[in-house]
Design brief:
Helix content: 25-40%
Strand order of the largest sheet: 3-4-5
Number of helices: 6
Shape: globular
Number of strands: 5
Largest sheet: 3 strands, parallel
Oligomer: single chain
Distance between the termini: 37 Å
Length: 153
């Protein structure tokens, strides 16, 4: 499936002064069955996962294998909306073995009481995120150093 949002999200990182992809072309492979943004339809909640993947790809620092990233990223790098169908997503993720969820701070209100999956009994670590910069810092504080991210002065 073709998805033009990867370039836009790379531009969001650049706007956030994380100049990771200067002179590079960005391609994103979306796994079969996943619907990202396709002609305006689909699910923008995968934006945070794409941002995390782009950060990992550019820096060579691996993401936690058991972490799930949910959230729509604005053009300014902020996570401003809740996550639709959060309960169902967490339940499916619990069955797949995920135990840490990064999600927008604004979604924490609706996530209260979901720290334990009702079906599997799995206990979650919920990590609130406000901006792409904060995500980079949460994943690896060294990412925000001038050498790690090529920050512009």
């Amino acid at each position: 499936m073709f998805w033009c949002g990867a370039g836009m999200l790379a531009a969001v990182l650049q706007r956030a002064r994380m100049d990771l992809f200067r002179g590079a072309e960005v391609f994103l492979n979306v796994p079969g069955g996943m619907r990202a943004l396709d002609g305006g339809r689909g699910d923008p909640s995968c934006d945070l996962a794409v941002i995390a993947s782009l950060l990992s790809s550019a820096t060579g620092v691996s993401l936690p294998a058991s972490a799930l990233f949910l959230g729509e990223v604005s053009l300014t790098g902020e996570l401003r909306r809740g996550v639709p169908q959060l309960t169902a997503r967490l339940s499916a993720a619990a069955k797949a073995g995920y135990d840490t969820v990064y999600l927008p701070t604004v979604a924490m209100q609706s996530a209260m009481g979901l720290e334990r999956d009702a079906c599997t009994g799995k206990v979650w670590t919920l990590v609130p995120v406000r901006t792409v910069e904060e995500l980079a810092n949460l994943l690896d504080p060294d990412w925000l150093g001038p050498d790690a991210l090529g920050l512009q002065s």
